Each structure stands twice: as C-alpha cells, then as structure tokens.
Amino acid sequence: MATEHTVLFSADVIAENVAELAARIDRDHSDDGVVVIVVMKGAAIFASDLVRAMATETELAYLTASSYVDGFTPGETLSLSGDLDLDVGDRDVLIVDDIIDTGRTLAELSTMVAAHGPRRVATVALVSKTSRRSPDAEPDYHGLEISDEFIYGYGLDWDERYRDLPFIALANP
Ligand code: IMP
Ligand code: MG
Q1: Does position 72 have pLDDT exceeding 70, yes or no?
Q2: Are strands 34-40 and 58-68 parallel, antiparallel or unpaired?
Q3: Is the CB of 102 under 6 A from ligand 1?
Q4: CA angle, corner 132, sides to 95 and 37, nearest 5?
Q5: Which residues keep their CB under 5 angstroms from ion ligand 2?
Q6: 169/162 Cα distance (integer angstroms)
Q7: Which long-range CB contacts under 8 A does 105-112 form with residues at least 24 apart?
Q8: Residue 68 and residue 91: Cα distance in Å, rounded?
Q9: pTM of the model as a whole
Q10: What is the pLDDT of residue 69?
Q11: Which of 66, 98, 148, 163 has the most ligand 1 atoms within 8 A of CB, as the residue to mutate?
Q12: pLDDT digit string (tens) for 121-144?
C-alpha cells in the first residue's frame, strides 16, 4: 500500500548537505584518518553516504544507542551496545548521528569516548533539532535544521518504520 509522505528534505538536498559536511570534515582532519563511530540505527544511512563522500581515511565502528521509550518520547536512560571495546587511544574520533535533539545522546557518547584517550572527539549530525537544546550541547558539524518537528526517512525511523526512504519527511504535518 502506498503511503503519502510530506517531503521536508529531498534526496537532492540531503546529498548536497552530505557533500558539504564531508568537505568541511576533510578540511579539519589530517592524513592519519579518523575513527568514525556510527550511532545505530538512525545514522547508518547518513554515515554510509558521509564516509564515501569524505577523502579522509576512516575506520568504522558501530554503537547502538537508544533513549526513546516509544516512537516519540525520549526516555530517561541511554542504553548502549556494539563496538564498545574500540581502541581510540591517540586517534581522531568522529561520532555520527542522524539527528541531534536535546543533545544528550552525542554528549554522553562524547564523554564516554573521551575517557579512552583519543586525540580529539568531534560530533556530526545531519539534522539539528534546535528547539530543545542547551547551547553547550551543539554538535561540531550539522547540516540541516528543524525546530520541533518529528521527522523520518533517510535512516530516521517513525516507530522503526520508513528508515529506507531516500528523503526526509514530516510526521503529522
Ligand atoms: P537527543 O539525545 O535528545 O539529542 O536525541 C537524539 C536521538 O533521538 C537521535 O539519535 C534519534 O535517534 C532520536 N530522534 C530525535 N528526534 C527525532 C525525530 O524527529 N525522528 C526520529 N528520531 C529522532
Ligand atoms: Mg538515534
């Protein structure tokens, strides 16, 4: 059955943003390469496009972080699993998420990674949801901006659905 989606960011707009982010990240990273930590599952598709657009050599790691108790509501605890034994000592690390909302996911992950002695930790989110965030939790890089909408597609889910859409759509427009 075909579902009607309200497209907010088209595949072309997303691709332009990914290319710009990749170029900026390349400018800031040296020839030593970067350990890219992909925050599953939402960032899987964005990160796949991003690392292929970057010239910087990357080593990929995958962590699952979830804080949503249902499809919409942020929960109290962030649960983590995946490549937790990753060696980031003296390396540049880039943590990649699909969207930053309150900033808690990226802040907690950055703190966790920083405890393992990397040379540098940076964060990138394709989309920044600006309305609920404290100013000290800004990502180092972000592409697109929204206010308080719930969006899905291009990796982002609406209750585990629609991650496979090539565009980003607005729920309940
Ligand atoms: P934060 O910890 O509040 O910054 O939340 C970030 C996480 O919440 C992201 O990794 C997403 O998984 C999820 N999230 C926040 N807003 C949305 C949305 O509009 N659609 C889908 N997932 C979202
Ligand atoms: Mg997420």
Answers
A1: no
A2: parallel
A3: yes
A4: 10
A5: 42
A6: 9
A7: 105/39, 105/65, 105/67, 105/78, 106/39, 106/137, 106/139, 107/137, 108/65, 108/78, 109/37, 109/39, 109/63, 109/65, 109/80, 112/80
A8: 30
A9: 0.92
A10: 58
A11: 98
A12: 999 999 999 998 888 889 999 999
Instruction: Give the integer Cα–Cα distance in Å for 5 and 141.
Output: 28
The single-letter DSSP state of residue 114 is: H
Which SS3 state, helix, strand or coil, does residue 87 take?
Answer: coil
Question: Around Cβ 40, how many Cβ atoms within 10 Å?
Answer: 19
Average pLDDT score, the chain: 91
Does the annotation count 70 as an active-site position? no
Instruction: Read off the pLDDT band of 68 (50, 70, 90).
Output: low
d(CA 20, CA 167): 17
Q: Are strands 6-9 and 168-170 parallel, antiparallel or unpaired?
A: antiparallel
- Interacting residues of 50 by C-beta distance below 8 A, sequence separation 6+: 18, 21, 22, 25, 36, 96, 124
Q: Is the CB of 42 under 6 A from ligand 1?
A: yes
Ligand nearest to the CA of residue 125, numbered in listed order: 1
d(CA 142, CA 127): 6
